[in-house]
Amino acid sequence: xxxxxxxxxxxxxxxxxxxxxxxxxxxxxxxxxxxxxxxxxxxxxxxxxxxxxxxxxxxxxxxxxxxxxxxxxxxxxxxxxxxxxxxxxxxxxxxxxxxxxxxxxxxxxxxxxxxxxxxxxxxxxxxxxxxxxxxxxxxxxxxxxxxxxxxxxxxxxxxxxxxxxxxxxxxxxxxxxxxxxxxxxxxxxxxxxxxxxxxxxxxxxxxxxxxxxxxxxxxxxxxxxxxxxxxxxxxxxxxxxxxxxxxxxxxxxxxxxxxxxxxxxxxxxxxxxxxxxxxxxxxxxxxxxxxxxxxxxxxxxxx
Amino acid sequence: xxxxxxxxxxxxxxxxxxxxxxxxxxxxxxxxxxxxxxxxxxxxxxxxxxxxxxxxxxxxxxxxxxxxxxxxxxxxxxxxxxxxxxxxxxxxxxxxxxxxxxxxxxxxxxxxxxxxxxxxxxxxxxxxxxxxxxxxxxxxxxxxxxxxxxxxxxxxxxxxxxxxxxxxxxxxxxxxxxxxxxxxxxxxxxxxxxxxxxxxxxxxxxxxxxxxxxxxxxxxxxxxxxxxxxxxxxxxxxxxxxxxxxxxxxxxxxxxxxxxxxxxxxxxxxxxxxxxxxxxxxxxxxxxxxxxxxxxxx
Lengths: 303, 298
Description:
The complex is a heterodimer of chains A (303) and B (298). With 303 residues, chain A is mostly helical. Chain A has 11 helices and no strands. Chain A folds into 2 domains: 2-49; 73-300, MetI-like fold, CATH 1.10.3720.10. Chain A has helices at 2-49, 52-57, 73-104, 107-122, 125-143, 153-177, 180-188, 193-222, 225-231, 248-257, 265-300. In chain A, α5 packs across α6, α6 packs across α8 and α7 runs antiparallel to α8 (193-222). Chain B has 11 helices and no strands. In chain B, α3 (76-107) runs antiparallel to α8 (191-220) and α8 packs antiparallel against α11 (261-292). Chain B starts with 10 loop residues before the first helix and ends in a 6-residue tail after the last helix. Chain B folds into 2 domains: 11-55; 60-292, MetI-like (MetI-like fold), CATH 1.10.3720.10. The relative contact order of chain B is 0.14. The longest helix of chain B has 43 residues, at 11-53. Chain B is flat and about 105 Å long. Chain B has helices spanning 11-53, 59-63, 76-107, 112-124, 129-143, 150-174, 178-186, 191-220, 223-228, 248-256, 261-292. With 298 residues, chain B is mostly helical. At the A-B interface, α1, α3, α4, α5 and α8 of A face α1, α3, α4, α5 and α6 of B.
């Protein structure tokens, strides 16, 4: 009888462990729900007082001033301006580097350069901000005297190097994963190595590379400390990269550091802005993940 | 009379070949320009940082609290806060991350819930850090009434690093050969005994490597902690997990956003200390990986 009791105990222990493990796995789902709920609750409170139409159409963002305007446009514009500058630089550089490393570089060069590029991803964003504000901006001012101390250009350039590892690293993996048979077929038809790379391998890797760029873009949009430090905290509806702008993330930091009382309308603005940011990055992320999945599925048959 | 001439090489082909060589050369040059630019930015960042801040680091700087006078200010509360938050984050995230990874890798069958969790983890990894800050502010600081405390900060960072830890832990578990599991099960071990006594011990170095890397990402990030209300001026050490706190990146941010160049030097020095800490953690992770990495011969 004793043995069976021990067996029953083992059985229950096994059950209990399984429940605990299942609970840990569920944390990720709970997190997503919690994000949606915590942003949603405050954002609903906000939109009760400020109608959505004002939020989307007003052209000024001044919730902390006496005359309050609640147009998200300047913040979205500032965010996209800086992220856009970053992508203009980071996409060509990232794809070039990825193509070179995957198709041309020797194994030794690859082994040395890949970690060097990935170091860039490990640098804290406050340090990038420090560098942009105190090194890049003064340097640029020597060439562009009209550049103001806070501007979109300098953090945009620095942000490019911050998202470069994401783009280069994912693209490289993708290009590397293009089946050898595609290269062989192209070479067998008499194409040169360069033609093979650009007309057979890269088009095959296309959706994966676009996925890498989307994920990089979503990272650029969500970057916070760098743009808070170097771009300024002045909501500005402009496409001029020489002027100060404020991003959505920088606004959230600005309010978090100030002493806006909990529960006030001003306080709720950060959740409305956060929800907007969350939805924008969600769209880019899901689209990026979908494209990457499709790439992997397309070539699984060859492997 | 027919003259037999050697077939002339077509000038068209020669031109094409020459263009091809030129294009290839162009491609390689631009790739190297991009690479050198990237490396020189990395060197410029480090060069600027060390030129500004290295001479500011001394015993006084490491053991003083922040101050209005830049030459008397220090990072005592900041580095203590960073270590405190880091260990608490690890204590929360590690069991959850390993648990989730074990469930997904060793127990779950492939059904809709597993798919949902996987999609979720991939998506969570792409959500901006500052959104986790808003989550922490609402859930931990306000709903759970933790206040603007070390504990709230650690919970926030734990939730943020969890996706990375889960992915790394799953890879480590997957690297353990199936034959180990089959051997244990064949001898009558239950599934949990198999995991606990055989699979997990072999996977632990890989899991720790991934966790340390995730943590080094998390503690370098100031945004979520700023959002949950970590302070920028803390003239005391947190004694309990419910005390207010500050961390190195926030202290550096506070100094860099002041106009005086003396404070900028302090910021640089604080960032050097932060980098040193990150370097130390990464070295430990790489050491663990190289020391315990197993090559299975099957």
